[in-house]
């Protein structure tokens, strides 16, 4: 009887030991699984705030000279002198070319002689007319009086004709000096000293360009123009004075042109082939940094609109071309928002709907996380260019208190 009791006790004890080992192993596995879970990924976020921001358009453009003139001779002759250095700046009225003027000086002298001859006949005709006027009723006939009057008129007409011929000869003589019509920069001379040129020839002697100020010809889509007008009409965009404001340039090498330009004119017609219209801006160009033909990109401020700024680095486009960005909700879970309408404001996208004040936009770290992921948001700031994210530095730990 005692033996059976001892055997039963041993079986119960063994069962308890096995159960204990099983529970211990299960607890160990659960602890290991819990220890393997990854902590939420840190992401940099920016709190959204609605405000009025400039509305800009990024437009391609080409530089064009403010004034351009192809220099051609207006009289014929042989080039005697080239008075400018090719590619140099000249002032208005500076001599560019000198044409042999001996023939034109002779024509002036001949015209002067003809004028003197014509003027010499006027006093005689005046005396005859006065004499016939006194004698018209005492011996001179009316016909003789009328003939004397005609003779005087012819003499005066000859003087006027001689003066006109002299004026033309003097003009042709002056045109042997080919001068700059305005200040600018010359191009290569296509003719040399000794070459014969003709009046109003097809071939130009050189080209003169005025580079300060300088024009920038921009191209804008007519669809964007219609959207802008609709937004202005709806009151979403404020355009002070109804005019385009500042225009800023980015050069071919990516540098910013330091001078702000202004609108000069806009074409009141749309191209039938490209669906675009032209805008011309004018910029001061004192150092000739911009040269005709250069490609530039212009940021045109067309007005102001209330909305939220999304840095370009924090946004992407979906398959339909719509703007998307990732946000962190109140539960620190990632969600993607789609914006059907967006505009450009500097280096940012400007949206008016789909965001509320205080919403947290992910600006860094969103490339490796998907929707539904739990994250650890870290407050950050974006610089004025919209490119660099500057996370605030963690405060230094206070030194431990001494016992």
From TrEMBL:
Hey, what's the signal peptide range on this chain?
Answer: 1-21
Tell me yes or no: is Protease among this UniProt entry's keywords: no
Main localization of the protein?
A: other
Question: Which residue intervals define the domain Multidrug resistance protein MdtA-like beta-barrel in the entry?
Answer: 213-303
Q: Which InterPro entries match?
A: MdtA-like_b-barrel (IPR058626), MdtA-like_BSH (IPR058625), MdtA-like_C (IPR058627), MdtA-like_HH (IPR058624), RND_pump_MFP (IPR006143)
Is Translocase one of the keywords UniProt gives this record? no
What Pfam families does this protein map onto? Answer: Beta-barrel_RND, BSH_RND, HH_MFP_RND, RND-MFP_C
Keyword list (alphabetical) reads:
Coiled coil, Signal
Family the UniProt entry places it in: Belongs to the membrane fusion protein (MFP) (TC 8.A.1) family.
Protein name, as recorded: Efflux RND transporter periplasmic adaptor subunit
């Amino acid at each position: 009887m005692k033996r059976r009791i001892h055997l039963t006790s041993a079986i119960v004890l063994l069962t308890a030991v096995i159960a204990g080992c099983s529970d211990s192993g299960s607890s160990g596995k659960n602890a290991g699984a819990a220890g393997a879970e990854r902590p939420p990924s840190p992401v940099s976020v920016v709190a959204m705030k609605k405000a009025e921001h400039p509305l800009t358009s990024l437009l391609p453009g080409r530089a064009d000279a403010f004034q351009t003139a192809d220099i051609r001779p207006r009289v014929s002759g042989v080039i005697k002198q080239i008075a400018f250095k090719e590619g140099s700046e000249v002032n208005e009225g500076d001599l560019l070319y000198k044409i042999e003027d001996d023939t034109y000086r002779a024509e002036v002298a001949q015209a002067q002689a003809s004028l003197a001859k014509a003027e010499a006949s006027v006093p005689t005709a005046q005396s005859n007319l006065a004499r016939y006027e006194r004698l018209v009723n005492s011996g001179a006939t009316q016909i003789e009086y009328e003939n004397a009057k005609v003779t005087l008129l012819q003499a005066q007409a000859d003087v006027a004709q001689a003066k006109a011929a002299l004026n033309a000869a003097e003009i042709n003589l002056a045109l042997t000096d080919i001068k700059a019509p305005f200040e600018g920069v010359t191009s290569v001379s296509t003719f040399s000293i000794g070459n014969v040129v003709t009046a109003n020839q097809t071939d130009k002697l050189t080209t003169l360009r005025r580079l300060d100020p300088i024009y920038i010809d921009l191209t804008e889509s007519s669809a964007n123009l219609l959207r802008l007008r609709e937004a202005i009409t709806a009151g979403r965009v404020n355009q002070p004075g109804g005019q385009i404001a500042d225009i800023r340039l980015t050069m071919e090498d990516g540098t910013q042109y330091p001078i702000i330009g202004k609108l000069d004119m806009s074409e009141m017609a749309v191209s039938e082939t490209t669906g675009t219209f032209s805008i011309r801006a004018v910029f001061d160009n004192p150092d000739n940094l911009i040269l005709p033909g250069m490609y530039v990109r212009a940021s045109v401020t067309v007005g102001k609109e209330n909305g939220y700024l999304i840095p370009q680095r924090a946004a992407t486009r979906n398959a339909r071309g719509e703007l998307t960005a990732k946000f962190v909700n109140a539960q620190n879970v990632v969600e993607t928002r789609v914006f059907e309408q967006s505009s450009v404001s500097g280096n940012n996208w400007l949206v008016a709907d789909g965001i509320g004040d205080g919403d947290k936009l992910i600006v860094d770290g969103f490339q490796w996380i998907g929707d539904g992921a739990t994250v650890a948001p870290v407050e950050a700031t974006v610089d004025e260019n919209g490119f660099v994210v500057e996370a605030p530095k963690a405060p230094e730990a206070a030194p431990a208190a001494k016992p």
